[in-house]
Amino acid sequence: MAEAADFQGASASPARRWLRRTGALLAGAPLLAGLLQLPAAATAEAAGQESSQTAAGTGSVSVAVNSLSPSAPSEGDTVTVSGTVTNNGKQTVTGAHVDLQVGPPLGTRSAIDTLAKKSDDLQGPSGEKVGGKYTEKFSALTPGVAQPFSISVPADKLDLGRDGVYQLAVALSGETTAQPWDQVLGVQRTFLPWQPEEAGTSTKTTFLWPLVSGAHMAAETGSNEQQTPVFRDDELAQEIAPGGRLDQMVSLGKGLDVTWVIDPDLLASVDAMTRSYQVRVADGTTTPGKNQELAKHWLAELQQAVTGEEIAALPFGDPDLASLAHNGTNVTGSLNHLKEATDVADDTVNTILHVKPSTDFVWPVDGAIDPSIVKVATSAGADKVITRSDSLQDNLSYTPSAARPIGGGTTAVVADSRMSTAFQGDLTKASASTLAVQRFLAQSLTLGLQTGKQRSVVVAPQRMPSVSQAQAMAEAVGALQVGNWSESQDLTAAAKAKPDPSANTKVPSASAYPSSLRRRELPRAAFEQIARTQAKLDKFQVILTRQSRVVTPFGRAMNREMSTSWRGRGVAAVGYRDGIESYLNGLIDGVKLIQKSETKLSGRSAMIPVTVQNNLVQGVEHLELRLTSKNPTRLKIGGDAYEEQRVTVNGGHAQSVKFTTSANANGRAEVVAQLYTEDGQKYGAPVTFDVRVTEVTPTVMLVIGGGVLLLVLAGFRMYTHRKRAAAREAAEDEAAEDETTEADDEVDESQGRADAPRNPEDSDARLEEESEAESRADAPEQPSDPAPDTAAESADPSGTGERVDR
């Protein structure tokens, strides 16, 4: 048929001849495969499916060891290994069985690291099968379906010899249709510490149990007497809620012999939640917090957990020492914030937990140090720096004790890097957590077997472990405490232990500081903004009558601005700092001058009022208000170019301050009002307004003069009339006395004279005086009468707290 398809008269093409030969070979391939009994071309597809897995060193079946109990067995114990096997391939595995394999002891700590990196590598080292009845079999493993297993074997069946760490491998073997022979398809290796009897010389181990969180409180507080705190979010409530990270840290740490490393800011924040508090929500408003009982319960549980245990208090807010050393020391005031954070740590912990903490320790990020970090760390008074062995490295064949002097009376407490980093990464899967625990115990035992001398070892895990990481830590510490090669020791004792004379005491140079950590530091701009906020606070607090209501919350907020928790969260850190500075600016603007419009003077002198408004809850004092004339030749204030008056205003009130002015010429004069603090620093924005002096003409002066003259003449006339009337009355009194001495016979004559009418001229004079007086009383005000001044009649300042208009 192929040939019929070709053109007539043409021979078969080379391509077609190749196709016919290939087809013939393919047709005979099954027969050849049957004769040779080999899975040849028919298995090509299956082999391709497995090729990527074998190339990577992992099998087609994943083995997960979810638990190993006990973690460190002794003689007479039964070791139980449980987990799951999952067929990740596309073919069903038949004849599957799980076996335990015990390898030779691992003699060095680096050997443990190497094995941990290849824990599921098919090409890795294998051990002797325990075999026998200690095998679990499966009829088939369906693709994608996980199957559980559990094998229990007495410890004496594991053929463990001398003390040490043994490799324990869990291997899944089986066959597929593509590979029909029994082979290892998946493996998971872990570690089995073996120390059946008490060690002659045990290792003293210090495990740090950190209680650290981020910054949750703002500087803002309520205007009530209790200063209700405001929280940036409700995340802290989630952390201390049942099952939350901090709840687990407390419940898991209870009963463990550890040293609690606590950020006092965390305690202060939870303590604030036990009373009335506000939470800021997405739209910027606040809502009442509702987790008071939750906070009280967490603190009560923590108080029980730390009873009898050592507490090392970090500086308040857990400031980032490396960022401060590298980017903040040249910014004025940065080291003062670290000193303040250290000073308040003791009182905060003691007040809330009723335990006296140690404040001698500082803990740089990941224990990485250089000379500048050590200098900054000790500047606040601490003389012990928690570092790590991957920073302060030793060129020794064994692990020396943690404590060592590094000069200047400072002790470096060197945490073991292998054990400290054992619980990092994702430990949400049980298999990862189990491997971390066994690796930690393996490192601890191997370290103890290195020499016959007793040593002190410190473990400093990550600052904020997740729930799964904390659970793994607790499991490891619990196993270590019941083991036979280690005993617990607190941090202070570890720092006082005799140093190893061969240990390195030279602090690494600045160039040795990890670049990965340096990239995540707080920038210089962060410390500059903190310094700017502090400068504003310093100027603001001097005018307050109750400074602590502002200084304390802002001081603690600036401690939080330097927190280690901002590493890698640059945008959030900037937002937090901006929020603190913006809120302070709002408070500062609460004390200000009220704007004034143009003021008119219709005379040569007047009083000009300037109003100071205080929108704060508390009163302000130690302020001076200066009113300055920009044109003193036209308008003088207080007899000069300016005048100052002291200002005191109650909270929520305003006060009007009055200044005496005198005009020398007509026209406009610009006047500036400015508040100053007692030390001469300007406070707030100035208020500028114009004062217009109206024209005083000669005609007006003449009218005023005429009016004054009329008043003088009227007064003189009244005086002469009163004098004349007084003289007549005196004469009449004298005549009456003479008449009483005459004889009775002259009574009729005297009576006749008495009854005679008076002198018409005298009567007319009196009537004229009375009429003139009444006319003056009823007369209307004349245009020539003097006009009142433009200012208030009283020139005294208004009382404190008076509300006034411009």
From TrEMBL:
Q: Return the InterPro entries for the record.
A: DUF6049, Ig-like_fold, TonB_box_CS
Looking up Gene3D superfamilies in the UniProt record yields:
Immunoglobulins (2.60.40.10)
* Compositional bias segments (type: Basic and acidic residues): 750-779
Q: Where is the composition biased (Acidic residues)?
A: 731-749
Q: Where is the signal peptide?
A: none
The region called Disordered is annotated at: 491-518, 729-806
Compositionally biased residues, Polar residues: 502-514
Q: Transmembrane segments in this chain: where?
A: 700-719
Q: Which domain of life is it from?
A: Bacteria
Tagged with keyword Manganese: no
Q: Does the keyword Ubl conjugation apply?
A: no
Keyword terms of this UniProt record: Membrane, Transmembrane, Transmembrane helix
- The identity of this protein, by name, is DUF6049 family protein
